[in-house]
Amino acid sequence: MELEGKVIQDLGIQSGTSRAGNPWAKKEVIIETFGTYPKKVKLTIFGEQRMNSCPAEVGMSYRFNIEVESREYNERWYTDVNAFSSMPIDGSISAPAPAAAPFSPQPMAAAAPATSIPPTAPADPFGSSDSDDLPF
Question: What is the CATH architecture assignment of 2-92?
């Protein structure tokens, strides 16, 4: 999936060592999506390699490739939004679409007079010659 937004906050880098003794690091950022009703989303960029290939500078707009994953822990559910890569986007894409003009009631124009078409008898689909119009 893709998500576009402007990075509004950098939550920093967290690092540690796994139980297996392997070092790990992750970076978390908050982005604000574009549109009429912008949303704030926390993205996690896990691993040194992804942090190098996924720049996320505060104040810049990006298109992120993301994956959303939920997991359960102690009967509670947690959702992570993981970013794999990002591409800077220019300001023309990030600008919200102009709002529609507000509704203002206008009187309807008078309709043009209808042309007179003589009525025609409907075709009989069953081919009966009776003048009875009952369907049974």
Answer: Beta Barrel (2.40)
